[in-house]
Amino acid sequence: MKIAINTGGGDAPGLNAAIRSSVLSALKRGWEVYGIRNGYGSLYTDDPFIRLDEDRVRGITMRGGTILGTANRGNPFEMPIRQENGSWEVEDRSDRVVEVFEEHGIEALVAIGGDGSMHIANRLTEKGIRIVGVPKTIDNDIWGCDITLGFDTATTTATEAIDKLTTTAEAHQRIMVVEMMGRYAGWITLHSGLAASADVILIPEIPFSLDIVADKIRHLDANGHNYAIVVVAEGAVEKGGERFVKGKKAGQAEILGGVGEYLEKELGERTGKESRSIVLGHLQRGGTPSSLDRLISLRYGAAAIRAVENSNFNRLVVMQENQLRLIPISDVADKIKTVPLDGDTIRTAQEIGICLGE
Question: Is 139 assigned a catalytic role?
Answer without folding.
Answer: yes
